[in-house]
Predict the 3D structure of the following.
Amino acid sequence: MEQLEQVQLTASHWVFLLVILAIFVSIGFRKGVIVPSIIGIFMLGLLAEPQHEGPLNQVIFAVQVVFRALLNAGTELFDIMLVIALMVAMLKSLQSQGADRLMVAPMKKLMVGPWTAFFVLGVTMYIAAAFFWPTPAVALVGTVLIPVAMQVGLPAIGAAMAVNLFGHGMALSADPIIQGASRLTAGAAGIDTATLVPYTLLFSMTVGVVAIGLACFHLRRDMRSGVLKAPQSDEVFSPKSVGAAAVQTTTTDEEPEIGPYARLFAVAVPVILLGIAGLMIYRALFLPDQAIRGGGATALLGGTATVLLVLSSFAAHGHHALDGISSYTREGFFFAIKIFAPIIPIAGFFFLGHPGHAAEVIGTGAAGYLFDIGNNIGQYIDGNVILLAFGMAFIGLLSGMDGSGFSGLPLVGSLSAALGTGAGVNVTVLAALGQVAAIFAGGGTLAAWAFGVAADAGIAGVSPSELVRRNFIPVISGVVVASILAVILMI
């Protein structure tokens, strides 16, 4: 990739840079970054060229820019919000007839010892998280399989690490099916989601394999020395707290009875969803002209979830489904909006770093603020891929420490495009590395206050701080290895 010519920076560029600095400071103090983002959008509107006649008109224009920036971000992200809402609503309808428990129950038979339990728990969590997202999936998988894992000798902290590293680590950072994370990163970077996903899969697997390998080594050592022991009691396991879990767990007495069609849906839903995933992979590899990617893949998943939601609701409630389906849909949308609402203002600001989004919000001729800044910085980096890769991994880890992981994706996407384009290296590799680091940190496995850590630790009945402490060295080691791999790919 050829380097771009150096651009003359304006006052707007410096304001954009100062707002990014303010966002980093806020993250460092574990404060929210929505207010700096909105102030930044307003300031860019005030400084936009050409200036309107009179200060009042310019203020009015700046206020309008704030709304248009949020609308632009919301429009870009709505399809992902919608498919997540529909997936969670479908899961709720399956729970109402007990099909969710039947879906994962066969995995119990594979748990014959602590290590088979660890990997069965982790792989099941990965598959469920890829389709339903990890927070709803942890309640589905954890409440059924964690008690069994503990009964065959896996300590509670081992069970928590399995669901956390596989679910909120590997599955969420790659997000291979729903692609919500990748769409957010790609939108900020100005690249195609389809080109980003293979790299996020590669880096998430790299970090995951290293982290899980080290985690197992440490668990095995502590189990042999007696530091960690599995519960000796056969009492029914009851999680202390599900933290931020979107799908509330129930006690044995509260669990719904198995419905007459529950077994049918317990088989049909996984077969259909895995069939769709297989079809997308097959076409991507062997029929690229008919590949189902990006918006098409999102529409296929969302439409399938909607059909299954309707069928499951009628199977569970008969004609009462006309009322029940409203409740499931409401809960699904509540979960999706709870996740994305704080991200939209942040994305609204960082999307302005891309020339296309800036022109859409501010008007034709608007600068791509972050792209211009990154291009100028890139002249000095001069293709130093080691500095770029490890720098982007560090930025990803830092941005994820707000406990979300997703709020940092517009930042890593924009910076990857800006610095990568300026330095003449592969933007997609940088963006994928930043995304994986951000979500592993905050989605998450390294922030004790993250909703992912809280849910996974709570459902296993362990301390979030203890889970983070045990994750730290394995995950950081994985990120270092992934950064080295990124350097090799960019040389």
Remarks:
- The mean pLDDT is 85.
- Residues 55-96 form the longest helix (42 residues).
- The chain has two domains: 11-75+343-490, 77-180+229-340.
- Residues 77-180+229-340 form one domain.
